[in-house]
Every structure is written in C-alpha cells, then in structure tokens.
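Journal club prep, notes for RB
We'll compare a predicted complex against what the paper describes. Inputs for the S-adenosylmethionine case:
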Amino acid sequence: MDKSEFLEKYSSITPPDLGGYMEGNAGGSSVRKIEGQVLYNICKVFLPKKILETGTHHGASTNYLLKYAQEDRATVYSFDVSSKAGSSIIKELKSNLVLKKSRRKIFPNKVTQADITKIRNLVVKTAQQGVDLFFHDSDHCYDNAKWEFDNITPYMKKNSPVIFHDVLHKTDKLQTNKLFDEIKSSWKHVFNTPSGMGLIVL
Ligand SMILES: C[S@@+](CC[C@H](N)C(=O)[O-])C[C@H]1O[C@@H](n2cnc3c(N)ncnc32)[C@H](O)[C@@H]1O
C-alpha cells in the first residue's frame, strides 16, 4: 500500500471516542483522544493481528488499540516498567490484552536497569514470535527508542507500520523525532496532533 492509498482509506474511517489525556479518563503523559483515534484508524487500514506497544502508562493508547483488536480479533501486547501501568484500561476490552509490567511496586523515579532489562527481555521474546504493528510510547530518549526499534522491527515484515508518539517535540527527554528522521523506510507520515504521531512504513 502506498501513502496516497493509505491516506484515502484512513480518512474514510470513523474512530470511537474513548477519551484520553485532558479529554476524560487518563492522566498526564497519556495520549490525547485525537492521538488514540490516529492509532485506531491506522489499525483499521493495516489490519494487524499482533500489536506490540511499549509504554502502557494509564492505558489511554492501549484502549484505542484494544477497541480495534476486539473488533478485528487481534491481540495487543503492552509493556511497561511501572507496576501501576494499565489503571485506566476499559474492563470490557481486557480480553484482547496481554499486559507485561514490573511485578515489584516501584515509583517511576526508582526504576533500575534490572527492571528495564526484565521488560526488554519480555519485549524481545514477544517480538520474536512476529509483530504486525509496533507503537512506541515508553521512554522517549534516543537510546531507548533506538533500542526498541532495532530489537523489534527485525521480526516485522516489510510494509508493516511503526508508530512513534511525540515526534513534534524536541527536548532533552523527548528525542524520538531524531530517530524518526533518520530511519530509512518505504514511506513516512506525521499526523499533526498536539504531540505529533509519526508513522513509518517499513
Ligand atoms: C508517556 S507514558 C505512556 C502513555 C500511554 N501510552 C498512554 O497513552 O496512557 C510512558 C510510559 O513508559 C513507561 N516506561 C519508561 N521506560 C520504559 C521502558 N524502558 N520500557 C517500558 N516502559 C517504559 C513509563 O513507566 C510510562 O508509564
């Protein structure tokens, strides 16, 4: 599918309203409603069966991926280093979710390298079984985003979608735009949402 075909199909889809940061059921650092809707619409065009998300947090983005997953019989594998992750995930959508998070109770600022390694090992184990869509929304520093891209996408087929949150922000903590710009791909598109959703098609 080329970019113009994608955009035509994308614009014909009506997404659900499941809230988001500032618009209902999720706290700070979650995706906005419009960004969750971008995720849902991309899923509806590419029809992935296995979705891998990093950075569950409250679960605002997860809810939109799960809504698609429930309608199209897909599974969402979501990963987070925080033991609190997934607090706002809608109960009725949980049957399509595999949530992997730290078992021990940790405050976000007390995450250790060992905690990160444990989650990364689970991410790789899941990716090795194949992934049809990858959504990155965990630690936005360049090294982490690159580690995830380099360790997940080798198990994805050509023409599969990879989505990055926050590609319009450039700060010390938000560096995914750097990776987004340097990746070589079939085509790319940036959705002009409050934080920017960057789509890469492998
Ligand atoms: C920006 S929030 C994600 C927002 C979420 N997608 C939503 O819409 O509610 C980032 C999350 O990434 C998690 N995180 C940070 N480093 C991580 C890592 N190395 N692996 C997995 N999750 C990580 C944090 O604990 C935090 O919950």
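Talking point for the session: Residues 21 and 32 are 5 Å apart (CA to CA).
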